[in-house]
């Protein structure tokens, strides 16, 4: 069992490192500068966290926070920022045009494409694998930069969910809470992907560097909710003494998990997304049906969370009002014997007298004739 935990911890962190290295490689390919390989040094933080986790936690996670996911975000965020900022200067050539260019170059050189490909293909097994790998990499290089950036965004969210699932459970989180957390991550990831694709694809947005940086900052802020597990681990059992300490403490104790989910929606996800979309529509005059739809969706989600907050406040007030009545009812039931009259106590004592055994003499028991 310990070996399986260690294996899952290592495999998950290795997946994080490989994906971040692919993003760094893409940055160096786009920028045509090898200095961007220095971004790969950020993985040393994840390597240090891996050593400490394996040594002190035996591969298990921490309470309320996943340092591995947090460091993975630190590793890959700079690469995605550079790709998004470089995105506006790239022209995506369709695949058909690319194939036409390649065929034109082959014809101009006087070569036969089929004969060349057939003659260069190796016959042994290892050579075939190397040849197919090189062909696959050449095909990937033909993919334009916007498609690469979108693929990195999608795989980032998928790896976050898969990695949180594979990471060993630690702290006080249970499997039931982990499944609930993963379902929350799926919905959150879909909203975040919609936000980046629908806002950054506009030409008017791409030409404004400050606006692009603002959108990326909001996107980065929204990604910080993935390392946190507070939405499922703050479900506490409040003691009865909390009611006597006031409304606020009872409210925070009973509905801490719900309040955390509402706070995520208002301040990390739906609230900032709504502000960005309203700024795009009102100030920058960027209006399309998808942008309007998602703005209405964010508004509706926030309204539903506000309705949920009001319902929780009313439920807490009701529990505060019911508490003193129950406390008053219990002493009245206990005080009923004290309100009885003295005659009733005398009757009870008279009825209890025959039950007592009085000492008798031997003469009373056996009379002398």
Q: Descriptors for this entry?
A:
17 helices, flat, transmembrane, membrane, transmembrane helix
Q: What is the average of the pLDDT values?
A: 78
The main β sheet shows up as:
none
Structural class: mainly alpha
**Helical percentage:** over 70%
Oligomeric grouping of the chains:
single chain
Strand content: under 5%
Low-confidence stretches: 95-103, 109-119, 325-349, 351-369
Count the helices. How many?
A: 17
Distance between the termini: 92 Å
Number of strands: 0
Radius of gyration: 35 Å
SSE succession: HHHHHHHHHHHHHHHHH
Shape: flat
Protein name: Transmembrane protein 26
Keywords: Membrane, Transmembrane, Transmembrane helix
Pfam family, one: Tmem26
Organism: Microtus ochrogaster
Polypeptide structure, described:
The protein is an all-alpha fold and 369 residues long. The chain has a domain at 98-124 and 131-138. Helices cover 73% and strands 0% of the residues. It is built from 17 helices and no strands. Helix 1 packs antiparallel against helix 7 (145-166), helix 3 (67-86) packs antiparallel against helix 10 and helix 13 runs antiparallel to helix 15. The longest helix is centred in the last third of the chain and has 46 residues, at 289-334. The protein is flat, with a radius of gyration of 35 Å. The relative contact order is 0.07. Mean pLDDT is 78; it is low at 95-103, 109-119, 325-349 and 351-369.
